[in-house]
Amino acid sequence: MRAGIRRIGVAVLLLALLHAGPARAEVPEAEAKAFARLGLIALRVLAYDKNLAARASGGEVTIVVVSGSTPAARRERERWVAGFALMPKVKVGGRAVRIHAVDFESEQAFDELAAAQRPAAVIALPDLGAELPAVRRVARARKALTFARHEGAVREGIAVGLIASDDKDEIVINLGAARAEGVRFDAGLLQLARLVQGGGP
After folding, report:
1. Which end of the chain is more exposed for a tag (fewer CB within 10 A), N or C?
2. What pTM was estimated for this model as a whole?
3. What domains are defined for the chain?
């Protein structure tokens, strides 16, 4: 399974990095490349969603990266943005990818942003803590697929975990959460992923 996950994005990552511009100055290149790898896996997961066309905004796939406003949270957000910047020509289902990075201020403000941006996906960063359920509620209401980097968040109701380490990448899926977000994954992805349960309504 792990070898299959690695194959998901390796070829595309090599092509993307060959055509990439420099990473943002404030993010070291090695960190940007690590997050580019995670970003490619996230895009591949999105490509397995049979309902993506209904959830994409026009001709684009919008991804919102949301965190708290602490310096550490913003640094991780910058790593995500720099990683996606390394692959500007990568598309999902023929659609360009647009990244929008935001501080979480309140559930109402985040819902208003989601209504305006119509994201196909939301990447929730670890520092959200007590605000994570609010992000989850908005994502479910707006039919945006949620991602996190920690399995605990998936067990709390985030749909997809991108669990990375030096020797393996793993996709962890909370299938009930994904369905609540309007996602229908192709069976091919479910064969590569590890399924878990959890999360409130």
Report:
1. C
2. 0.86
3. 2-196 (3.40.50.2300)
Classify 88 as helix, strand or coil: coil
Q: Which of 54, 42, 67 is nearest to 162 (CA)?
A: 42
pLDDT tens track, the chain, 201 positions: 544 554 444 334 433 433 344 444 489 999 999 999 999 999 999 999 999 988 887 789 999 999 998 999 999 999 999 999 999 889 998 999 999 999 999 999 999 999 999 999 999 998 998 999 999 999 999 999 999 999 999 999 999 999 987 778 899 999 999 999 999 999 999 999 999 987 655
In DSSP terms, which residues pair with 122 in a beta bridge?
64, 146
The DSSP bridge partners found for residue 173 are: 160, 195
Which tokens sit at 47? 């490509």
Q: Return the residue matching tokens 């208003």.
A: 112
Q: Rounded to an integer, what distance in angstroms lies between the CA atom of residue 109 and that of residue 111?
A: 5
